[in-house]
Amino acid sequence: MIEAVIEAVIEPEGDSGRRGSGAGDGRHVSPGVAEDVRAAAFGDAAAFERLYRAHVARVYGLVCRLAGRERADEFTQDVFVRAWERLGTFRGESAFGSWLHRVAVNVVYGRLRADGARREREVASEIPLTRARTRTDSIEIRLDFEVAIERLPERARQVFVLHDIEGYKHREIAEMLEITSGTSKSQLHRARMIMRRHLDA
Hints:
Number of domains: 2
Distance between the termini: 12 Å
Number of helices: 9
CATH architecture of the largest domain: Orthogonal Bundle
Structural class: mainly alpha
Order of helices and strands: HHHHHHHHH
CATH topology of the largest domain: Rna Polymerase Sigma Factor, Chain: A
Helix content: 55-70%
CATH superfamily of the largest domain: RNA polymerase sigma factor, region 2, helix turn helix motif
Shape: elongated
CATH class of the largest domain: Mainly Alpha
Largest sheet: none
């Protein structure tokens, strides 16, 4: 159930995201993107503007899911500042969108650690989940899915977004969040159970 809903609400990403990006194969970086990255790395603001416009929506969506809507604008700006500073490290070995998402994840968790905001939210059973009528409209399903994500406990939400939405492996998540792979797996299971209860309600 939850896997089907995820597939229904996540747009195909192509070069702008991690899922299906063919990490490790430079052929997945289009010539136009590669040229813009090279030019931007040498200070071409117009080239960076094109990269920004092509990827800002997906980066914002990722940041919003990881950090919450209230800080998404601020963190998204930080992501692109960091990306501008680190463009010289992009070697074209994976899709540019995948590299940018990795930058985004690092920025978000760096900021959350610095702000002392990486504490667990209330236990899921203590958070009332709003029951909703049966929906058939895809927009309403998408909105309900996003609400369910926001109501997950923080750690479970982070692992769910990174694994089921962004396509990272448990070992990668463990490294990024400074937890064990076992903890990542258990938090993913927890998140899926909570999501399933909410979406089935």
